[in-house]
Amino acid sequence: MSVLAQSFAMVFDPQVLMVMVLSGAFGLFVGAIPGLTATMATALLVPITFFMEPIAAIAAIVTASAMAIFSGDIPGALLRIPGTPASAAYVEDAYRMTRDGRGQEGLGALLVFSVIGGVFGTIILILASPLLAEVALKFSSFEYFWLVLLGLSAAIFVSPGSVPRGLVALLIGLVAASVGMDNPTAEPRFTFGNVDLLGGISFIPAMIGLFALAEVLRYLVRGHKLGAPLRPSTKGLLRSQIPVIRRYPKQMLRGNITGTLIGALPGAGADIAAWISYAMSKRFSREPEKFGTGHVEGLVEAGASNNAAVSGAWIPALVFGIPGDSITAIVIGVLYIKGMNPGPTIFINQAELINALFIVFLLANLLMIPLGWLAIRASTTILAVPQKLLMPIITLFCLVGAFAITNSVFGIILMLGFGILGFLMEENDIPIAPAILGLVLGPLLEQHFITSMIKSDGHLLAFFERPIAAGLGIFTILVWCAPLVRRILFRRKEALT
Amino acid sequence: MRLGDRALGVLTLLGALALYFASRQFSPLPGQKYGAETLPMVISGLAAAVGIWLILQGWVSERGKPLAMVTDWASEPAAWGRIAAAILLITGFILAVDWLGFTLSSLVLLTALMLLTGARPLPALALSLVTVLVVQFAFGRLLLVPLPRGEFLSLPW
Amino acid sequence: MDRRTVLPLLAAAMTLAGWASPALAEYPERPIELIVPWGAGGGTDAVGRIFGQILQEELGKPVNVVNRTGGSGVVGHTAIARAKPDGYTIGVMTIEIDMMHWQGLTDLTYQDFDILALVNADPGGIMVAEDAPWKTAAELRDAIKSSPPGTVKASGTGQGGIWHLNMLGWIMSEGIPIDAVPFVPSQGAAAGLTDMVAGGVGMVPSSLAEGRSLIEAGRVRALASMSDERQALFPDVPTLKEATGSDWKLSVWRAIAAPKDMPAEARDKLIAAIEKAYNSDTYQNFMKERGFGLRWAGPEDATAAVAADDASLGEVMKKAGLAK
């Protein structure tokens, strides 16, 4: 029997298939609940995988994590509670679409482009793993510094309306990010002697507060005047995406590639991928003014990007045993236990296992279509509940979700504080998204800056000494200067005519 | 209440100052020029710049307008009451949950919130009970979230 | 209501209350929480989860792993020490407990815990990139000695983290001044190793298990192991004593600890169950396959070992100016 036939036989075993369906349903469930992350889904599965065959164990984790990342989008679209920081990038658009009665189109796009992104990432994983892993290994703190800075500049592009108000939001996020002692110097900052604050501000409780609790508070002051969002129908959910694919093929491809490449970097994952893709989408769009008001274009690019990143994260994990994100960190442990030691030789020595793993990846992403469709169908029933009952229930979910992250009341306190902050910010037209971005990327920016400075003995020019770093640095500076340059060129043209 | 650019600018500038003074106590790493104070200092510098930007922008575009606008809901005392009640209820939940346990405190919170949004008492209580039990089972039992048990009533799971 | 109805009701209520109270029932009669002070996906989390799984079979009640992360372990360790000492909250203690109080982050020390057992230990090591000029630990030491300070840099944990101290302890034992090797903080050993392979730093003094896949891929060379004997998984890597003659030794360990003053019945049952779990095939195989080191010590020996590390780490931290 050829190696490939052997691999197929391993995967298309009734037991493995059943494990995939069950863990897929589990992943969808966990991912759709705010506060429970894809990482949590994976960690909860690990003890069960001890008793499984290698392929079944890997299949369970791959399926659950892929589904969880997608289903994080569902509560974002329905209730404005992003399930993961990766879905926070485009939650405003997805939620507005549901409010405007176009929920079917929005949810369909999230599902279809998640699948496309996941499949694309898998194909790259199959074809180019060793090569891409080599490139990823060339990334040190200098390169990551520029990448993070590029991600932060996305704040300016993603904030609708006034630019300085967007920057105020970014600064709020950055200040929150500097709390605690988990910074490169390990010096406690702004903790006021509190043990819980030593650990800093976890961004998921903060995110739940800023988006979801703020929405509840807003409902309390003027909800009855806004009216309830319509319950999206699932009829033609998938078919409605064919014109979208036709309309935005370039965006889709760009999201796929960006997501896979960023995912393959050990120091960057689905979060950064989604933000950069969303910003890129808006930057190059023909109708950037529509972003943030319920426009599908950003969902296409960023939705594909974060799922592609999930597959991409496996590239350094398989080739060098270096986790690309917190999910693959758990996976590497499971691989060792199952005797599949990661390394460049895994592709040769254990070809049938690796091929089986690739097949599992493709299958898991395809399984997302029927399972995701069912999940959307089941979860949209929540919008049939009258708002005056739904809003209190959402509050309870916010509390439990925030609690589940820190496993203590501290998460709820954070959530409440940020909920009030989020309410005040929106009252003042200060966008939420840049604050999340600052909170997620602030610690990375600081870490890569400080470590780079230690390595280069304080020489700032070191940020341009390595070829990839120099390229990324020049690109970032160009992105910053582009509006300025364009304005100058525009003026000159005006002067000429 | 919506703050105009000038008022928000002044607030941002004050925040920048506070941050600057708070970060002066941090020190660079031994033998380095940078350390724990670098990021807060950079943020404070940026905040100062953004604050000045806002003030200048407000100076030009908001001439003759008030510093802040009163939004439509802010003139309704009932709206203020509802939002204050919700915040107080959640605060009460935070204080009581370890002692009262998740089941009881969330039941009280949920019913009270539903009354606040205008639901009728009996359906509110019934729906709250069902929701709390489902949440407790799903999170506590299936997903192993260690929800506080409380001192007296604790369900068998 | 007269007395005839009240009394039986009262009696019934008391029976119910008695049935529900843990003091009368046999331990354990409800799920046990196992606090892990580090995040899901890390090595401590993996050890905690496998241990929880086996303990669950031994004790017949669910053992739920609860991650309480942040503040370099301060948050989680505080949660373990401050839990109700009823036997229903235990936790995984890590070597950071011997460091955090020296740093002035908390007043908490190992003395605030009832240490039930030591279940794992991983010796520190010295790793360099495969294309580095140093083939042995002695060559690396001489290179550090003869070049200007800062030529070789190290990474692998946060500032003042355990591998930072490991590196400091080693170079101090070789008579090298502590500012000779600047330390570049990183988010864990994997990040430090990646940075080393990318050419960012010269050495990573973390445990060899953490570099296993890169060593096997031929990207990283292991120069020494800070243990008494060579490690089974890396038979070709000399101990530090063999490599340079230094007496410095350091292992990171993981212990199962509980808050002080547990009821004796619960304590005895837990210790017996932990020992059984440690000796189970599941645990032994798991640890071997993950490349984690096995080490057993009962309550007294474990406490003594933790105390010894507390003293030696405190000394290094004071000399390095990391203690407050």
Give me some keywords for this one.
heterotrimer, A: 497 residues, mainly alpha, globular, C: 324 residues, D-Maltodextrin-Binding Protein, domain 2, 2 domains, six-stranded mixed beta sheet, 11 strands
Q: Can you give a write-up of this model?
A:
The complex is a heterotrimer of chains A (497), B (157) and C (324). Chain A has 497 residues and is an all-alpha fold. Chain A has two domains: 3-465, no CATH class; 466-497. Chain A is built from 24 helices and no strands. The mean pLDDT of chain A is 87. The mean pLDDT of chain B is 88. Chain B is mostly helical. The longest helix of chain B has 24 residues, at 38-61. Chain B has five helices and two strands; from the N terminus they run E-H-H-E-H-H-H. Chain B has two domains: 2-70; 76-142, no CATH class. Chain B has helices at residues 5-23, 38-61, 77-100, 102-116, 121-142; strands at 2-3, 68-69. Helices cover 66% and strands 3% of the residues of chain B. Chain B has a two-stranded antiparallel sheet with strand order 1-2. Chain C has 324 residues and is α/β, with parallel strands linked by helices. Chain C has two domains: 30-122 and 251-319, Bordetella uptake gene, domain 1 (D-Maltodextrin-Binding Protein, domain 2), CATH 3.40.190; 125-244, D-Maltodextrin-Binding Protein, domain 2 (3-Layer(aba) Sandwich), CATH 3.40.190. Chain C is 42% helix and 18% strand. Chain C is built from twelve helices and eleven strands. Chain C has helices at residues 3-20, 43-59, 74-82, 97-100, 137-146, 162-173, 188-197, 212-216, 240-244, 264-279, 281-290, 299-319, and strands at 32-36, 63-67, 89-94, 113-123, 125-129, 154-155, 183-184, 203-204, 220-225, 251-259, 294-297. In chain C, the strands form three sheets. Chain C has a six-stranded mixed beta sheet with strand order 2-1-3-10-4-11. In chain C, helix 2 packs antiparallel against helix 11. Chain C starts with a helix and ends in a 5-residue tail after the last helix. The model of chain C is unreliable at 1-24 (pLDDT under 50). Classes of the chains: A mainly alpha (497), B mainly alpha (157), C alpha/beta (324). Chains A and B meet through helix 10, helix 12, helix 21, helix 22 and helix 23 of A and strand 1, helix 1, helix 2, helix 3 and helix 4 of B.
